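Example complex used in Figure S2.
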Amino acid sequence: MNWQPSASLQALRARAELLANIRSFFAERDVLEVDTPIVAARGVTDPHLSNVTVKLCGDGLSQSEYFLQTSPEYAMKRLLAAGSGSIYQIAKVIRNDEVGPQHNPEFTMLEWYRLGFDEYQLMDEIDQLMCSLLGCKASKRVTYQDAFLTVTGCDPLTAQGIESLRCWLVKRDLGDWVKDEADPDTLLYLAMTHYIEPTLGQTEPTFIYNFPASQSALARIHPDDPRVARRFELYIDGVELANGFYELTDAMQQAQRFAADNSIRMKQGKPRALEDERLVAALQAGLPDCAGVALGLDRLLMLKLGASQISDVLAFPIERA
Amino acid sequence: MASYSTNEFKGGLKIMQDGEPCSILENEMVKPGKGQAFNRVKIRKLISGKVVEKTFKSGESVEAADVQEIELAYLYSDGEFWHFMNNETFEQIAADEAAVSDATKWLVEQDVCTLTLWDGKPINVTPPNFVELEITETDPGLKGDTQGTGGKPATLVTGAVVRVPLFVQTGEVVKVDTRNGEYVSRVQK
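Predicted assembly (510 residues):
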């Protein structure tokens, strides 16, 4: 019987110290810590994510099945719309179908929103947080397009570039489906995860920004180039650590996005996900101008400690939970 | 036709790929921050023996390969086929040269081998880890050399050639590890 923690006591102390440092970083900047529900009435519509559901019973409940949150995003946006000001949360989130050396179904996410910031100001703040937590060098910023051009020589934003990327991928013999793949984003995700990500953040933390609009559901479209959206990701040592947006504040667009996600779900034979009307109502009331980011704290701790497996930084990963 | 979803992937699972049955050696989930996830797998092609890396879109289905492994005793070869028998049911199966390939040099009558069957037909024969075979030819060695420094080649009754210590002589039976083709010891007859 393996009752003992898989992380060393030293790793658990490092986790506590990391959380304390994050809390003081935000306290100094007057960002409010909040706590939103893990068990909620609605899940995500994102066809690539899957909620764990739980059954609850009790007199006053409006439904019997509830959703364990994959991210605190919707609830935090409702707080922003209610006038909370800049907020952060250290949240436990749960995602189905994610188990592996780098993935545990339940993990800790640091998510924060900054009023009046755009994505560049938020990247600056993330940079300061990383330097204070990891003692690393200042970051470098590369556009999504330049990252692709450097590694593959193909332009990810033109139809012609996607076709040359397809040829580039077919040569690597990953599977027969590549030559017939109809969705350009799937080809981009394939090249990104297999060939580009491993090269990123090797000498200093690297931000990739200006992602294709098609991959950036909740980000604003770039005013100078409608092919890209104001979304970024942070990479250190080839690991994707954070994902952020200059947030979409348009309720109508959000509702359309939910509907589009559900039509993809239908095509994939997945059940329709109920749309979060409370989020849409909050956006209708008005989300203030803000930028937001989610950062995986377990991965951050792995980087800090040089751990290769997520179980090295969790007291009890799912196999021992 | 039977199939597996990528979320059933694990080491040892048998799938069809490039028209050939394959065994999954390693399976890794690759997930972007948002968007389509992939299963990156290392597979061994069971006929050619090649090990290749393939990537599947997570959530897709892949055709299953009807592959099973059974233990059978080697009987004899008629030159074209190698015949094996199930010691319990006495059922016999013949494997062709492509299936037996390198295993021919380690086949000893009555030894129990592992046969890999695809749709009921043998595609691979794995001999036992250790076999005992007689030396048919080797140079006379120096008496007194018991260290086996360097050694010398010896041809075994099946045609296999292994390096043996100098003191081992023609007509003796030796134990050989079939996984690396190395001499283990002499066997007292």
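The interface with chain A takes residues 7, 18, 28-38, 40, 52-60 of chain B (CB under 8 Å). The longest helix of chain B spans residues 97-100.
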